[in-house]
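User: Last request for today: this protein with guanine, please.
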Amino acid sequence: MIRAYRGDIVYSADKDELRVFDDSYIIVKAGKVLEITKKLPQEYKNLEIIDHSGKMIIPAFSDMHLHASQYYQRGVGMDRLLLDWLNDYTFPQESRFEDMGYAERAYDLFTEDLINHGTLHASIFTTIHYEASDYLFNLLERKGLYAYVGKLNMNQNCPPSLRENTKDSILDTERFILEHQGGKTVSPIITPRFAISCTEELIQGLGSLVKRYKVPVQTHLCESEEEMRTVSTLFPEYSYDSEIYLKYGLIGNSLSLMAHCIYLDEKDIKVLNSHGGVAVHCPDSNINVTAGLMPSASLADTGMNLTLGSDIGGGHDIPIYRAVARAVQVSKIRVQLGLDQRKLSLTEAFYFATRAGGECFGEMGAFDQGYHFNALVIDDERFRGLEIGISDRLERFCYIGDDRNIIARYVDGKLLD
Ligand code: GUN
Ligand code: FE
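Assistant: Here's the final one, the structure of the complex with guanine:
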């Protein structure tokens, strides 16, 4: 089945280059991009044309770090520092996911809103609860989103209702992998919460699963100074924070998504860069729990792979297009404070939110030949009044657009309803 989508097409060629195609056609065969052309070639004369002219066609967004179980608590407890916020708000909230009725209501709403806001690729933390995690996995698969879903691991420094027995935590994770590997669009991901929540024995056991099943990993790394002080008390024999993950194979054997990375040591930077680690910048969350300001531009200049995350519920809102704007804003504050030499460009931040995130799932997040046609159609007519080009319209959507502007969402060429 070949279709042509007409509109103002824009996507990231790489970190520093947007490709912009004014009033053009994107030709899609069996859900993948064949080519982008200004005029329809003769051979395509009879194909079905979906006319979005005047609208922007952009790649679907990728949220590379968020907690589905924290969706109800967004915008609450925002006066707390990270560790107090976890204890006072997040752990009580996560305890409720033992109740499947509660979990289903929360995950249904979460998924609906994720899709509404154009996040069609996501790497998601759930809670320690198997059944609720299984429910979210199947729901996302049914909806056709591309996602990693990680049943969380946690066996210390948390309330008894959330404290896993080490052996059971590893066994449950293995079962989660075995029961969900080979999903069409959703895959399991190993998810130790952060070093404070996990004993060395647990991290070691999870590392064995990574090596055995070649599954990706996600966790939090170097998020706040208080967190890092606690980590060095708990793990005094390690000299930098990623060392324990490197030692047990949670870095270096598969995709590793490291959320926050605000206070990386030189050695962390070397480890991540030499093993293809991916740092997930979550600017709203970092501000809300007073964690800090990520040195995103400086890290990007070391060659680090950067992506964006909403980090719901540390982050208060789900739109990744807004994280694009916030990442640029935070980078400007760092320059003003003399902490960085340069700011991020919108082009870079948009690349993090689309192509860099999408490529963690395969050929997604861009419209090169062979890439999945996972796309959004943006109608920005209600902002009319300025005569501006497509890249300026893209920036404006990131700053002031919302789900009302997203009038169609495609995954593998299929319109989502
Ligand atoms: N560190 C450990 N757990 C969490 C969490 O749920 N959210 C954030 N932002 N940081 C964490
Ligand atoms: Fe988080």
